[in-house]
């Protein structure tokens, strides 16, 4: 059986690390896409982000997001299922993720990777 | 006469650059301190941040903050007077700076530089 992945506890989530994660356009696009799908409780798998970057680069960003406490990952068979730690983030930093997601949505046109996510979403 | 410093226009302020600026604990502390003083319209000068870091390191962070559009700097004699571009930031990214400042205040104890700011404030 796969070993569960290490995640920081809610209290271990640190503001500078969260902001650093969100400052990268690819990680911002991943978080944005996770937030869009969170509404209906869907977890996403690695393949859902293939439009954003290559596999190994995405794996690097997934690890950064998990280590910073932005994302929960669970291993099911050969898949990794991912979701945003929305409740933990909203408790630690009220309003922050919401403001970042809304700002990203407003700037979707210039944050080209986010725009690609949105196009991919509507397929 | 000193040449006015270059600042990005409101529309040129970019989300990834703003988040990158805020992800650095010293820059976050500078922004936090500027936000505290903004309420009464006070501009701050370089010396007001001496508790945070050395002069040349602070100069580097001031430039990063100005270039990213977080801070307005004007030269008066031998002084540089600085204020947060709160209205521009709130227009571009509604709620973002407010959420970051509140999150920093909640974590003041563990963001040691922010805590130093607060101590300096009460002097």
Describe this structure in words.
Two copies of one chain form a homodimer. In chain A, a hairpin with a 2-residue loop joins strand 2 and strand 3. The longest helix of chain A has 14 residues. The C terminus of chain A is likely disordered. With 123 residues, chain A is mostly helical. In chain A, 33% of the residues are buried. Chain A has one domain: Orthogonal Bundle (Arc Repressor Mutant, subunit A), CATH 1.10.10.10. In chain A, helix 2 packs parallel to helix 6. Chain A starts with 14 loop residues before the first helix and ends with a helix. Chain A is 52% helix and 11% strand. In chain A, strands 1-3-2 form a three-stranded antiparallel sheet. Chains A and B meet through helix 1 and helix 5 of A and helix 1 and helix 5 of B.
Give helix and strand order of chain A, one letter per element, not per position: HHEHEEHHH
Distance between the termini of chain A: 35 Å
Structural class of chain A: mainly alpha
Biggest β-sheet of chain A: count, sense, barrel? 3 strands, antiparallel
By DSSP (H or I, 4+ residues per run), the number of helices of chain A equals 6
What does this entry show, briefly?
Chains A, B: It comes from Bradyrhizobium jicamae. Chains A, B: Residues 17-98 form the HTH arsR-type domain. The structure is a homodimer of 123-residue chains. Chain A has one domain (13-118): Arc Repressor Mutant, subunit A (Orthogonal Bundle).
């Amino acid at each position: 059986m796969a070993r569960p992945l290490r995640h920081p506890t809610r209290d271990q989530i640190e503001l500078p690390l969260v902001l650093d994660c969100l400052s990268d356009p690819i990680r911002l696009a991943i978080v944005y896409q996770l937030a869009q799908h969170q509404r209906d409780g869907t977890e996403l798998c690695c393949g859902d982000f293939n439009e954003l970057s290559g596999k190994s680069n995405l794996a690097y960003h997934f690890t950064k997001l998990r280590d910073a406490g932005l994302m929960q990952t669970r291993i099911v068979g050969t898949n990794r299922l991912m979701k945003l730690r929305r409740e933990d983030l909203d408790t630690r930093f009220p309003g922050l993720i919401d403001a970042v997601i809304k700002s990203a949505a407003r700037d979707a046109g210039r944050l080209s990777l986010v725009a690609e996510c949105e196009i991919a979403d509507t397929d």
